[in-house]
Amino acid sequence: MSMKNNLLKRITIDPEICHGKPTIRGLRYPVDSMLELLALGMTIDELLVDYPDLVKDDFLACIEYAA
Description:
The structure is a single chain. The protein has 67 residues and is mainly α. 49% of the residues lie in helices and 6% in strands. α2 packs across α4.
């Protein structure tokens, strides 16, 4: 299985979580919110400090999902 497919497994869509918006691993972290923070210039390392229950691959999955 490719790295891309493994990363995309981290993105989930559940109508019961965040109104069905794509989130990271079923947690209440919408993909679009994380992408917005990255677009504003935050680094993944900075985000890992702010969101300690997430890991680097979660943010890479958000980027891959957007691509």
